[in-house]
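Re: that chain you flagged

S.,

Sorry for the slow reply, it's been a week of failed gels. I finally had a moment to sit down with the sequence you sent. For the record, here it is as I used it:
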Amino acid sequence: MRGLQVAYSPIRDRFVVELAKKVDALFERQDIEIALQREPAPALLSHAMNIASRSFGQEKLEALRNATVSGIFYSPQNVNLTALVFSMLDRLTDGHISMLKEIANLENATDHHVPWERVKMIGVHFMPSPDGMKSPTRTLPINGEDRFIDGLDIQTNEILLADMVSLGLVEQRSESMTAIHEWSTGPSQNLFGYALVTHKGRLVLEYISEAK
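Prediction finished late last night. Pasting the structure tokens below so you have them in one place:
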């Protein structure tokens, strides 16, 4: 197992190079030196590099770079928030981050909470053939042709959603629809589920987004 314990990390090194390029493009040399001399800066940089060394996926690494820039250069006083966001990013995957962004975008576009069933379909592709699918499910014909989706993709989305709910980034709400009459199944069935990005989720998104 010794061969697995190597200090060299190409992902971490690429992360550092891209981070340096980003910082160099955004700030003057004097401002960079001042920011790096602040007491928490070395520890935060070390934390970010450690996360990068065990990460993969461009979405996550870019989010980590943006969070590093935000925490060290734009909001150096919010050390606790930066550490919280770093710890969250260490836990999240590309799938979490992409889904969180998409829910927020859909929320902003519709000015309303996003139906839970719609969120479960984010990134799920309709394919002309079930070949290569783990759990192929036939859908209604589209333009006269049969289409298939992989049920495993939906199950993965459900796991990602449940994870983000447990982390406090997304909230699942139920809203009653206006009932014309009592349903035989009872009022508990007369509900629609919606996904809502929480205040904590919005803070994380703000931190991991490209600084304007």
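What I noticed first: Confidence is low (pLDDT under 50) at residues 1-6, 177-191.

Talk soon,
D.
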